[in-house]
Amino acid sequence: MSKTTTILKRLGVAVLWGMVLTGFVVLLVAAIQDKDAGKCKSIQVKFEGKDDNFFIESKDIKSLITKDKNLNPIGKSIADINIAELESVVDQDPWVKNAEIYFDNGQQLNIKVTQREPVARVFTFSGNSFYLDGAGEHIPVSSRYAARVPVFTGFPTDAEKLQKPDSLLAAQIVDMGIYIGNDPFWMAQVEQLMITDDRRFEFIPKLGDQVIAFGEGIDIEKKFTKLLAFYKEGLNKVGWNNYTRINIAFENEVVCTRKDGVVPLQPVIKTDSLKLADADEPPIADSEDSTTAAPAIAKPVHTEPAKPVAKPVHAAKEKAKPQKEKVKKAKAAAPAKQQPKAVYKPGNKSVNTSKKQKTP
């Protein structure tokens, strides 16, 4: 075979492939032009996210762009439709986190919507209400549906643009809402949390009637873990109805306030660390201004009573009257007895009771 024949054959193959490629490009351009020359036939809305979020529906999204005649794409040439403008309009809805819009081959306008997911519902002092999402953004309440998220009451302001103290408080609400919402036990146990005047949190659980003083919205997992341990190791042993207040704001301990001045009967507990303060000694400070102050612990009970020291009979008679007067003055000057406390310390293997209580 001559060189000329070989060259002509290669040239023919190259020309053939060039014609195929050119034809493909022509067809592609024609298809694009035909698509652009076509008109928008319909709108299809698809939602991304949780399926049980009914705050916004397909008809709500469609109405955002069809209520304005200048924006309504139905019947318009695809080439004349500004997709970026339509996305901007949909994104402005407070329940929409993100929107993507595109046309398919059937000349249908597709809108893919990612919704905002609320993590907490907040009530202000004035009674107004709104949701917060994971980014701390405000979401309005919907009349169509109420999200099952933790509820916080007593938020100090209605302003959407928050000052620094309120912004920090909102961030703690978001963190607590996410943690509680992701834990089935605490989601069932904690229905509503109250914000105190000093920007701390309290709640009354569904199981039990005690007020749980949580303190600041920090160390959330540690505090709930400590409370759960106290439920198992403390209240299950001494009873659920002995305390009016349980404070878990302190480091590595739970401080409880009893309902009355009587120390509840204690079972023999070998594994927990429930300690009861002496009813005659000053009660443990239930301060919520500090999460690091360690409350005082009751002194251990001695198993053998101290032997009384004998005194002369005459000396006792001479001092009896002055001693009675001192006791009366002391009782008159003594302040009213406060409710005794109980302290639970994780990791302590012993149980100490007040010195007036008999060892079980």
Properties at a glance:
360 residues, alpha/beta, Ubiquitin-like (UB roll), Rossmann fold, three-stranded mixed sheet, 14 strands, 32% helix, elongated, disordered C terminus, cell division
Q: Quick summary of this structure?
A:
The protein has seven helices and 14 strands. It has 360 residues and is α/β, with parallel strands linked by helices.
Task: Give a verbal description of the structure.
This protein is an alpha/beta fold. Among the domains are: 39-115, Ubiquitin-like (UB roll), CATH 3.10.20; 118-258, 3-Layer(aba) Sandwich (Rossmann fold), CATH 3.40.50. It contains seven helices and 14 strands. It has helices at residues 3-37, 58-66, 83-91, 164-181, 184-189, 220-238, 313-333, and strands spanning 42-48, 96-103, 108-115, 118-124, 129-133, 138-139, 151-155, 192-195, 201-203, 211-215, 243-247, 254-258, 274-276, 341-344. An eleven-stranded mixed β-sheet has the order 6-5-4-7-8-9-10-11-12-14-13, covered by helices on one side. Strands 1-3-2 form a three-stranded mixed β-sheet, with helices on one face. The radius of gyration is 37 Å and the shape is elongated.
